[in-house]
Design brief:
Distance between the termini of chain A: 32 Å
Radius of gyration of chain A: 26 Å
Order of helices and strands of chain A: HHHHHHHHHHH
Oligomer: homopentamer
Structural class of chain A: mainly alpha
Mean pLDDT of chain A: 90
Largest sheet of chain A: none
Helix content of chain A: over 70%
Chain lengths: ~260, ~260, ~260, ~260, ~260
């Protein structure tokens, strides 16, 4: 399982803590609850303004999705589509009905059912592509939430620092308090920068990468399903779908297709 | 009712006030009428330059729109379109005339009337899509007003701070006044940053999100209307339109369509 | 007449002057001819580098265009097109020749003359769209000049401030001169920021808004002219063109079309 | 001849020198060979990394191109195309062979030769458009080199300033050296900003403007050549090509076309 | 061999070292292991979060690719395609089978084999373009990794500086330590800026340039292969493919084609 996202976040935090301690400071000097509340609270407040409530209530689900890797195995799915093509070739499109239950992916399953139902090819394409476009929009909205957090947290970090600076400048009577006061004022900028650059911006990017990968898979499925419906030769379908893969991964399909063919 | 935008703005302001007070400052130290006037006035002045007068006079309406949620219920509208498809299927396109009055959405109503009038399908599509494009332009202009405010208020915040710094530097004779003078100078930057990041930028984004949602709905309507006019099977229309929805919302339509069919 | 741009610039300048005076400074402290020359001169110098000489010599004309509103009246023009459609319908395309002289807009006039000359519809479309594209390019170039000024003036403001800072740091012998020297150094940043955010950036945006509006009108004209040439029903043409307008403006056309029809 | 680019650069440098001297500083205070080497050297080092070696060795040629104006005379070229159309109309496409030698532009010449050779119109279009696309890619690469210099020189300016600041902070023992040391440290930022905003960014933009202009001319040529090959009426070709020009320039063609026609 | 990337990086580092030493500082003052660890470690940590694990494990390969030049020789490849066209013309498509083994490029080889196998032209185009699109996606992902490093390293540089500043401000008791402490704090910003602007940003750009070049070659191959399959005249194919090249390189093909023809 690919835990890169969690690993990267842990690595980043460990490095920051190590950086603080190796400089001889106490971790406690860098923890200020009020500053954390302003940066996280302010960042979320602005983001809540920018999105419908459902985006905020669904944040946990998108967050969970951002830190876990896509578990799509492109080569397995191409293998599956080629198996289906072989079944359809040998026993006709109706024979796919039995195969439907073995398919775990909802999108592929729906496509196969549309074919089994004898839906017009143009309509199959229209429905699957609309669904893909709609998936893409939902993914983009999820990514947008993270991107907004990533831009607003540093902004509220700066707002927090301005609050601290103004407070300090209004009370310059005690020179010995200037240093510590400025240190605290800078903490919100520190938090805003850290949270944005270690969490929100990279996680938003990860959501984009995952979304692109999922869309590629879905396009492979649509291409494969339409080819099956058109009664194309499984060998040609394999050739077509393998073109979506990097050369290094293509080898892994040959055998599966071989098995499907026998 | 989805009050996320208002809630987010209130939450942000409460956090900022709490942040000021928890740092031991008086709220009064952070209120400076002149600074507020320069930031808000200057931001609006630049924005007024950038848009036709009508955009400024219509600002209140767009603002009201930005803080209230879209009340489109996609599933209800798809249900409605399927009902219309059933009526058209059973009783002919002319029978839709009676149904027109039950439709509350102007766009859908206009589309149905075009169909009832026997308008050429190509022309129906042309008219509805032109209207959609024109709606999109108006939405983008509204969002542009907010985005401009969001970029000019921090700019005038910095201009205000420069005014304060220059004034202070010209009169360094009294060292005790330096701190408070700089504090006041920083307030315009603080206001510009706060207003932009809590109000204008998020609200501009919200307008974009709402606009995208409304356009999706309109596309569903156009797709549905053209299918009705083409005499397609209501079940197929349902299949087509449901592809625009996230899987989780699709269930809610089945029953309505069932009712419509009986 | 819509004087929003001039009004906005005046409002912004008044606010800045008021901000300076309300802070107890003399306006004279904020006026430094050398700084103004560096910011405006440097900004224009860089912009002159970036564009052909003709863009600089034509700057005055584009500036004049940016501060005055578009005087297109979309509803009047749609009314005019529908009148032409009625004439063509009743008396044939050749009858439009007489109407040509009443048309004040060059683009519309040229289109009508092409139709009267019996030009092939495909060619009419080709010529009018090429002209529209060419107009769009010229508008974009004009807007580009303003955008470049808006990005280079703050840059030369910073360059001016760096010059001032270096000069000051080289001669720290007299501590009492530090404050005033820094004040003067900051003035170029102040000018660069003010000129960019009150004049060039908003005026560039205004040119973009005006250009979009003019292009919409031209598209309405092309759509209308092609429909007239195709001999479409004036009522249908009206329906098509009204779809370009916001619902609130549509009412104003009905009567004119009514008059045209009788 | 249009020497706007050189004039603008000279004007900018004169203003900066004047700004330095009018502030009472010596020009010598602003010249530091080491700083210049770091900013220019570092900026080019990073840019060399980003491009194939040939882009760096060809820099001089692109630079020369950026400071001299396009010498395309659109109206002359349109006149030329119309002359060719008249020849082709009167004497047939083969008669263009003699005219080929009078054509100074390689692209137009190649197009005419393709026509004379009886090349299939689809292929003529394909070849000329591929060549245009390839020209566009080369122009974009040249512009990219300037844009990269324009973004890396300020970056190395900041890197130079950081080097100066760190050096100064490490040796605070002699307070009297702080000012001059900071002054020198700031010089790299000054150079980076000046070179980027007076040279690289505007010259990159100029290359873009010139490229757009050249592409427009090439499109006019392609449009004209295809029309000639299709045997269209020279008067119609003129009408088509003039639509690419601003109204103010169109007049200048009429006479030439008249001459061509007689 | 084109070693511009390595040369540029070495040049940049030499200049920075020279800049440090010419200012009289010791190189040792600019080396701080902890700072380097935070900037590089933090930058990679965030980037690891943003991409699937495979992107991080494959980083070395992409890095190697970014610093070595493309070894595509466009003119040789065009010559090769024309040779193939001559073979196909003289001896039929099947005769290409023997030529396949001489082709070193996998993509071109695959295309020729598809043709030899008698694959439908539409399918050949579909497969090769899918493969090209998929290559483009992989290249963009590799470039994305570098761009992310280039944006996160300066961010972690700033985070490191904030850590240093906060630590320093908390302990202002010993004034003599302020300078050195700030110097160290600034080092992370220095590293972040240097690494981003000398390595990641230019190398990311280089990957983009290389990718564009490779895609152009692939498009030339696709165009050539489809023309061969369509049985087009080798001379015409040459004309078509040469249009992809800059005029200066075109000469080098003539001879090869001549050899192929005899």
């Amino acid at each position: 399982m690919d835990l890169a996202s969690i690993g990267g976040m842990v690595l980043g935090l460990v490095l920051v803590v190590w950086g603080i301690m190796s400089g001889g400071s106490a971790i406690g000097d860098f923890i200020d609850t009020g500053s954390i509340v302003i940066v996280i609270g302010g960042g979320f407040a602005g983001t809540i303004v920018a999105f419908p409530l459902s985006a905020t209530t669904g944040f946990g689900k998108v967050f969970a999705k951002s830190i876990k890797p896509n578990d799509f195995k492109t080569n397995e799915i191409i293998g599956k589509v080629i198996d289906l093509a072989n079944v359809a070739r040998r026993e006709g499109l109706l024979a796919l009905e039995e195969a439907v239950n073995d398919i775990q992916d909802d999108f592929l399953q729906k496509g196969v059912m549309l074919i089994v139902d004898g839906t017009d090819p143009e309509l199959v394409k229209n429905i699957l592509e609309t669904e893909l476009g709609s998936l893409q929009d939902r993914h983009a909205a999820g990514k947008g939430y993270f991107d907004t957090l990533g831009s607003l947290m540093p902004a509220f970090g700066m707002i927090g620092t301005l609050i601290g600076l103004v407070a300090m400048l209004k009370n310059l009577s005690d020179p010995s308090s200037i240093g510590p006061a400025m240190a605290v004022a800078l903490l919100t900028t520190f938090y805003g920068s850290l949270f944005a650059n270690l969490f929100w911006i990279p996680l938003g990017q990860k959501l984009g990468v995952n979304s692109a990968e999922e869309q590629l898979i879905r396009q492979v499925m649509i291409e494969g399903l339409l080819s099956i419906q058109a009664g194309e030769n499984p060998r040609i379908i394999e050739e077509k779908l393998k073109a979506f893969l990097p050369p290094s991964v293509r080898q892994t399909i040959g055998t599966q297709e071989g098995e499907g063919e026998e």
